[in-house]
C-alpha cells in the first residue's frame, strides 16, 4: 500500500512538472548528495572559523586581564572569548549530529530521497 502511494506521488509530481517520473526521482537523489555536501561544508567551515577566533580572543583577553587592577574589572576581549567558546561548543555538538547525516546523504542518497517523498505523503 505504501509503495503504491509513493509511486502515485512521484507520477503525480512528474505530470505536474511535465517530466518523467524517473527524472524526478533522479533529481531528488542528486539533491540529497548536494544537501550532504553543503551540510558538511557548512559545519566544517563553522568549526574552523570559531576554532580560530576563540583562541585569538582568549589570548587577547588573558593579556588584557593581566593589565587590569582588579579581577572584577570589565574585559571585553574575555567576554567575546567566552561567547565564542560557547558558540564553538554548540557548533561542535551540532557537528556531531549533522556531519554524520551529511555523510549518509552522500553515501546513500536514495534513502533520503525516499524519506523526503514519504514525508511529503505524510504532510510534514
Description of the structure:
The chain is an all-alpha fold. The protein has one domain. The chain is built from four helices and no strands. It has helices spanning 2-17, 21-67, 76-107, 109-122. Helix 2 (21-67) packs across helix 4 (109-122) and helix 3 crosses helix 4. The longest helix has 47 residues, at 21-67. The protein is rod-shaped and about 75 Å long. The mean pLDDT is 84.
Q: Could you give the topology of this structure?
A:
Layout: H1 2-17, H2 21-67, H3 76-107, H4 109-122
| Number of E-type strands | 0
Strand content: under 5%
Q: Helicity, in percent?
A: over 70%
Give the total of domains: 1
Query: Structural class given helices, strands, pairing?
Result: mainly alpha
What is the overall shape? rod-shaped
Unreliable segments of 5+ consecutive residues: none
Biggest β-sheet strands, sense, barrel: none
Cα-based radius of gyration, to the nearest Å: 23 Å
Keywords: Membrane, Transmembrane, Transmembrane helix
Transmembrane segments: 33-58, 79-103
Amino acid at each position: 500500500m505504501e509503495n503504491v502511494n509513493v509511486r502515485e506521488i512521484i507520477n503525480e509530481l512528474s505530470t505536474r512538472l511535465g517530466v518523467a517520473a524517473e527524472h524526478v526521482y533522479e533529481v531528488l537523489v542528486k539533491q540529497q548528495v548536494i544537501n550532504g555536501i553543503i551540510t558538511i561544508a557548512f559545519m566544517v567551515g563553522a568549526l574552523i572559523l570559531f576554532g580560530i577566533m576563540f583562541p585569538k580572543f582568549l589570548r587577547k583577553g588573558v593579556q588584557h586581564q593581566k593589565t587590569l587592577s582588579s579581577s572584577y574589572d570589565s574585559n571585553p576581549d574575555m567576554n567575546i572569548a567566552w561567547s565564542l567558546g560557547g558558540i564553538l561548543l554548540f557548533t561542535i555538538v551540532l557537528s556531531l549530529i549533522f556531519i554524520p547525516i551529511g555523510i549518509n546523504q552522500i553515501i546513500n542518497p536514495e534513502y533520503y530521497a525516499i524519506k523526503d517523498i514519504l514525508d511529503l505523503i505524510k504532510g510534514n
